[in-house]
Amino acid sequence: MKAPPTLSAEDFEPAQHDIHVEQISRPSLSYWEDAWRRLKQNRRALISLYIIVALAAFTLIGPLLWRVDPSLQDLNQISQPPSMPKEATLVAPYKRWSGVTINDFPAYPDDYLDLIPAPIGLRPAMPPTTQAVRLVWDPVKGAGGYNVYRNTRRPETINDLGLPLGGTMAGNEVSFQDRLNLEQRTYYYSVISTDGYDESSTYTTIEVTPLLAMTRQDAISRGLIPEDSPLDIGDTLQIEFHPLGTDYLGRDMLARLMEGARVSLFIGICAPVLFVIFGILYGGFSGYFGGRLDQLLMRFADFVVALPFLLFMILFKIAFGIGPGESGILPMLIALVLLGWPATARLVRGQVLQIREQGYIQAARLLGAGNGYLVMRHIIPNTMGVILVTLTFAVPSAIFTEAFLSFIGMGVAPPTPSWGSMCNEGVKTMLSHPHELIFPAAFISITVLAFNLLGDGLTEALDSRMRSRE
Amino acid sequence: MLVYTLKRLLAGVITVWFIATATFFAMHSVPGDPLMNDKAVTEEIRANLERKYGLDRPLHEQYFVFMGNMLKGDFGISFTQQNRQVNDIIRDHFPVSATLGVLAITFAALGGILWGALTAIYRNRLPDIIIMFLVILGISVPSFVFAALGQLALVNLNSLLGYSLLPVAGWGTIWHMLVPSLVLGLGTMALLTRLMRSSMLEVVNEDYIKTARAKGLSPMRIFFRHQLRNAILPVITVLGPQIAAITTGGFVVELVFAIPGLGRYFVQAVQQLDYTVIMGTTVFYGAFLVLMVILVDILYGFIDPRVRIES
After folding, report:
1. Cβ A315–B278 below 8 Å, yes or no?
2. Is A307 at the interface with chain B, CB within 8 A?
3. Å between B217 CA and nearest CA of chain A
């Protein structure tokens, strides 16, 4: 048996009566302030918001910082992969090279050898540039000529030497000049001795990486240096820099992505804003007045929903037509708005029907509020949360639609770039130059992802049921 | 139920009529006509051709002629493909699109339900995190990128193996259908997975699950009989609109994988303003979609008794 607790007189004192049992410990927050607070707690939604801000900056400020003309074609630099800044060396205009002939060596072999050795000491005669690669080597006994091959990878067997460039027809002519389509990359030159007719079975290979060379005249005509530039032969100069590479016409990908972002985001944001506004008006009107009119209006909305969306996008887009030189952005916008509104209208109508029956509406009406006041002051603000969420989710689907149409060649007309039409062009060279597809596709995906996650976050933040759950 | 079905069908017929009318007038408002191509060399030839195709009559008369023929199930002959019936085009190429779509929706529904259930079981653990990451990817990446990447993967796979395991493009055998339908279904699969997950998590807290557990049913039985079956309901609701999205979304996949589906004919017809083919394909697609939505709704009534009581 437990001992009874010892009690003192203090235990029988009346408890302290606290008047402030309930007090407001946190500042009162409005609906929107509260939603914003909860959105900020959602890390994914917040990151998405940052991504969207970054995309907006990329679209609006980007072209001011990256002043490359997105439509400038450079057929010298087609489908370049993404690269670091490149430098070229100024060289003198091309001069003929007479080659190297060793006079005290027999031009034709005196005796026949079973195996003519491969030439030794193969080396560039002067620093290799893309203007010309000049090779020399030491003559070998028994040779009556040499053949030169070039490959872009290290040859493994004698059958793998690559492109036959040419050769010399005498054993003492020990040089070769290559000027065939040289690029700034690593080449493997192989030289085989011949007896004048047939090739030997041994070869020697060197690795040569020519420097990008440019004559002063070329640099001036491409606008890289001014006419009176102090640069001299041997100096280096910056050439056009394409951080994300170039497309199949040599246009800068970064500049095109920025230009394309303008088109894609313009359509992706304007169209939803427009059709959501129209949907609000239509649905609000229909729901507020109700009755037969409501039935009729909603039946029409049902019809529009039933239209096969993409078929009608294409049809409407064509029906509005694009004249020569127009980009086709406006027809697409109109088509999207014409087909996009019913979903919002239905939603807003449902909300309005619900809100119309609420007590505070009747209270306001009792106080003498007119129709317009009720709609503007009570009904629309109360549907705003749902509308905002719809809008956020409508943006990615509009971006998808634009990309989809541009991809099948029914979207914006070239040369106006959009992310979708860039994907369309990129798909054609997907196997050899994947960057032309990957970059625009990544931009579409990231944008859509950001808006989707933000939409999820907004749904949670604005949902009043979630609010009470905390 | 019968009254409900008939009502829905009647509304469906009116919808198809609306689609046909909207298409007709949208199409005729496009500047130019199908005879613009080099066919109509001289004024006389043009006049003859217009008379042959009935283009010389007033628009409303053309509309009634067309509607009358449509009621008889005749969409006329193509303008650009000599003497080819639009009905034949649909008959030849729609089955291809439909097969692709059905396979894709099967993939999407099975995958969505499976993955969704898995993520709900492993909530907030590694499988859930991985699958939900893939789902977000599936929702955010456009189908044409999946199509292109799928083709790229096939090319690499085939060249790695040294023989052609799966064909890269074309149509014919089940092997041709596998990758395109998977690619086509990916987006929907991602969507359904998400839906299935949230639905599963909602169902788990329901009283009847607690009851089932309390009366000592095995976890497997609770999972399959009570949780899964109830969680599938919302997935079936969105299936109708998703069928619509998939059949029209098939365009791009048909384009990338060179599949002779109906989508390609529609795009071609719009470009050449082939009136009859445009009308035929749009009305046919529209009717098909309306029918699908009605079917799914009726099916839903069979699965969920509550809907039947309400109607």
Report:
1. yes
2. yes
3. 31
Min Cα distance B47 → chain A (Å) is: 24
Nearest to A394, CA basis, from A452, A460, A461: A452
- The token duo for A308 is 């096969």
Neighbours of A365 (CB within 10 A): 14
How far, in Å, are A332, B136, B153, B268 from residue A312 at the CA level?
11, 28, 33, 14
pLDDT digits (tens, 9 = 90+) for A39-97: 888 888 889 999 999 998 888 888 888 777 777 777 767 777 777 777 777 888 888 88
Pairing mode of beta strands A145-151, A163-168 = antiparallel
Residue whose entry in the numeric block shows the structure tokens 């820099």: A241
**Interchain CB contacts (distance < 8 Å): A and B:** 117
Both tokens of A416, joined, read 């106006």
Full-model pTM: 0.77
- CATH number corresponding to B98-262: 1.10.3720.10
**Is the confidence metric ipTM above 0.90 for this complex?**
no
Q: Tokens at residue A341, please?
A: 């509104």
**Nearest partner of A354 among A266, A432, A412, A284, judged by Cα:** A284
CATH number at residue A324: 1.10.3720.10
- A192: domain range? 88-214
Residue B64 one-letter amino acid: F
- Cα distances (angstroms) measured from residue B71 to each of A289, B8, B20, B47, B292: 37, 19, 11, 28, 20
Contact B267 A314 (CB under 8 A): yes
